[in-house]
Amino acid sequence: YKNYDTSCGVISNLDQSAQEDSVLVKVLKEQGAIPFVKTNLPQGLLNYDCSNPIYGQTVNPHNLQKTSGGSSGGEGALVGGGGSLLGIGSDIGGSIRIPAAFCGICGFKPTSGRLRSVLLGFISQYRRRRLSCGPMARDVDSLALCMQALLCSHMFALDPTVPPMPFNTQVYQSCRPLRIGYLENDGYTQPSPSFVRGLREVRALLEQAGHTVRPRHSNTDERLTA
């Protein structure tokens, strides 16, 4: 975001304003969006909470005694509290999806490389390959509208590494049953019983809706980290 720092909560990154807008910001502005604020995140990003030594703690808009989640917790709190219709977060192992769940909104992590991602020097090459930027909003239709706006010729011209595949409205609106894979355990982190129960409840609902749901088994060398 031009003329603003991208500190990632790290003091040494202060006073290093961006010289130009990122690709995502350029495309959103071209589509008529008005960026008006940058929100908080945990120091170094890789955290399920949302605090840093520069801007302090972000709390949940629905309960000030609770966290907003992380790492895109500032964005989740802003959208969840009604401060914005749309936000953009980044996600490796849940950093869009966790604050979206905590703040009662919707979040979407696109496939890595589907949108232009911000390159941050302290993130390893392994994690960069899994980093995605994606939308956060109050409902699924708003997420789809954002993806439709971003996946356009302007994006593809600005960044030739992004696959030139426009948003497929026909697929999004289709009622055709889907085949969906899911993980209960990634082979590295043991999920809590409540997480497994919630996942199985979602699986049952998807099956009731006519979709085919199959378990997947993760290769432990392909570990997901937040």
CATH 4th-level superfamily of the largest domain: Amidase signature (AS) domain
CATH topology of the largest domain: Amidase signature (AS) enzymes
Query: Given the C-alpha coordinates, what overall shape results?
Result: globular
CATH architecture title of the largest domain: Alpha-Beta Complex
Q: According to CATH, what is the class of the largest domain?
A: Alpha Beta
Measured by DSSP, the beta-strand proportion falls in: 5-15%
- Cα(first) to Cα(last) distance is 24 Å
Q: Please provide the count of β strands.
A: 9
| Oligomer kind | single chain
Structural class, from helix and strand content?
A: alpha+beta
Main sheet makeup = 3 strands, antiparallel
Strand order of the largest sheet: 5-7-6
Topology:
Elements: H1 23-30, E1 51-52, E2 56-57, E3 59-60, E4 63-67, H2 73-80, E5 86-91, H3 97-103, E6 106-107, H4 125-128, E7 132-137, H5 140-150, H6 153-158, H7 169-173, E8 179-182, H8 193-208, E9 212-215
Parallel strand pairs: 8-9
Antiparallel strand pairs: 1-2, 3-4, 5-7, 6-7
Helix pairs in contact: 2-3
